[in-house]
Amino acid sequence: MIPSKKYYLLLSSVAFAIMILLIVIQVNWFSSTVDYQKKETHQKLKQLAPLIAMEVNGIDHNLFHGQNILVVDLPREKITNKIDSILMLHGFYGKVYFAIYQHQSNGVFLSNAYKYRKELLSSDIKSCISDIVSFSVVKDGTNKREGESEEEYQSRIYGESSFQYFSPVKGLRQSNDNDLWISLYQEQKLSDIMITLMWQFCLSIALLIILFGLLIYLLRSLAKHKKMSQIKTDFFNNLSHEFKVPIGSIRLASKVLRQSNNPEKNHSYHKIIEEESELLEKQVDKLLRISMFESEFSQIKNQELDLHEIIEGIPEKLKILIERNAAKIEFNLGSNQSLIYGDKEMLTSAFVNIVENSLKYSQEGVCVYITTNDDGEQRTIRIKDDGPGIDPRYEEQIFDRFFRANQGNQYKGKGFGIGLSYVKSIVEGHKGNIELVNHYPNGCEFVIEL
């Protein structure tokens, strides 16, 4: 059993829902990864802050532990280079800003980014330089000299020491506004790792969209296959019916002729055989057209021809059908330039097909109006009838090959559903255009531009 259109629509909806869900998962993954990276970077900087404080303190311990520290005395370049080297050593290649400061209003504030003063002062990534003490190994008997101040003594033994060691000592004293702090701040921008993740994210989204597109293409192909399979079934049903009716009539008429000696009756049945044979021949001719459907249009014979002459010859070609349906064809040929270039046989066949459809699918007494007019270099031909028109549901499919609009009763009309498709191919083969102007339920109109 071939799945229905609703089945394919349901599959498409499910596929779309899954794609949206996967995109949401990808977005959530990317967001979580970015947050995790930010937290990890923040934590690494917090762990690195005490080491940076000790390394900066090691530049000149006495300088950072003096009573009246001044910004101008701090070796800014050395401090910057020292901090940058430590950060690079630990894998921080993005810009990280620092500040050395005191909390008092007129205290020290040294930074490599004064525009982030507020962020640096409020940063929780910090370490107190004032909590770092110095341990020195000096010679035995190195005592304080007479008249030597405490600062002079500390400076002397520091210079004479053979080994110094710095270490933060917590709880050594109560913190106060004179304490010297070092803080770090990194602006919240995507790092190189985040940029890599962004590419991975975009690539995964692109692949999902491509996958969804391929799925939709597959579903459409399956739906098209299903449609073509149904068209094929309808075609063979129509083919069987179109051949069965005339063959049945011929067989019946032959039986009657074999048993009848009435000349008038025989003449009547001979006529039936002749008409049904002609109908059968036309159907076979249509099947031959199908086999040559594509190749015919590569052999268009362009020659000068009279458009009005072709149109005026339509009634003669449909004489029997016009008489049978008591139909009329009226002309209003207003084109001032009726000479065109094209294939006379093909264009005649196209116009005849349209008028024939109007006669076959309309009630008795139908009138077909054919008009021509000029639109610059183009010739516009309008073929309009006052029949029932075409159900709007079938407008988009009316030019599809093998399609027949009377789907509710597929044997009601005659033909294989190739007429209008054949007409459209001929018109487009002549670099023209054809469209349907539907006046349902009061007829329809075909507009051809050549």
From TrEMBL:
Domain Histidine kinase intervals: 238-450
The keyword DNA-binding appears for this protein: no
Enzyme Commission identifier(s): 2.7.13.3
Catalytic activity line of the entry: ATP + protein L-histidine = ADP + protein N-phospho-L-histidine
GO MF annotations, alphabetized: phosphoprotein phosphatase activity; phosphorelay sensor kinase activity
Pfam families given in the database record: HATPase_c, HisKA
GO cellular component: plasma membrane
Enzyme class: transferase
Keywords assigned: Kinase, Membrane, Phosphoprotein, Transferase, Transmembrane, Transmembrane helix, Two-component regulatory system
GO biological process: cellular response to phosphate starvation
Parts of the chain that traverse the membrane: 7-29, 197-219
Protein name: histidine kinase
Annotated organism of origin: Marinifilum breve
